[in-house]
Design goal:
Largest sheet: 4 strands, antiparallel
Strand order of the largest sheet: 2-1-4-3
Shape: globular
Strand content: 5-15%
Structural class: alpha+beta
Number of strands: 4
Helix content: 40-55%
Radius of gyration: 15 Å
Number of domains: 1
Number of helices: 5
Distance between the termini: 11 Å
Length: 135
């Protein structure tokens, strides 16, 4: 997770004022949050001859529609996709994380939420956006 002035895309480096937060949402935390706590659908098997863009888009829509009350978190539908949050979106992401944190006891999900909340608080304090770089 990076604090960034431009959250629209990853440039492969950091601009002046951007910085790495030394926080990573790992696979088990992501799975616990989205599959165990939020009950998002898991991907369907990818079949030979399927168009990968159509397959990804179908899964993204299913995933995001399963959690309409969490649109900022819904953007994290794939651990292999970079996701940026502009400064004005960080507060919304924080609010979503805090709402879920209050409703779960899943330790892996709570650890992932703790990291996201820390990152959001750092971004808000700095007036920055957040960029989550994929695996």
């Amino acid at each position: 997770m990076y604090l960034v002035s431009d959250a629209s895309e990853w440039h492969g480096g950091v601009d002046e004022g951007d910085r790495y937060l030394q926080l990573n949402l790992n696979g088990p935390e992501w799975e616990a949050l989205f599959f165990d706590v939020l009950h998002c659908p898991e991907p369907e098997p990818y079949g030979e001859g399927m168009d990968i863009r159509e397959y990804d888009n179908h899964f993204r829509i299913r995933f995001q529609h399963s959690i309409p009350e969490f649109p900022m978190l819904g953007r994290l539908w794939d651990t292999y996709r970079d996701v940026g949050y502009a400064p004005e979106q960080v507060k919304k992401l924080l609010e979503e994380c805090v709402r879920i944190q209050a409703k779960t006891q899943n330790m892996s999900a709570l650890e992932g939420l703790r990291k996201l909340i820390l990152a959001c608080n750092e971004a808000l304090q700095a007036g920055s956006g957040l960029f989550l770089v994929s695996d």
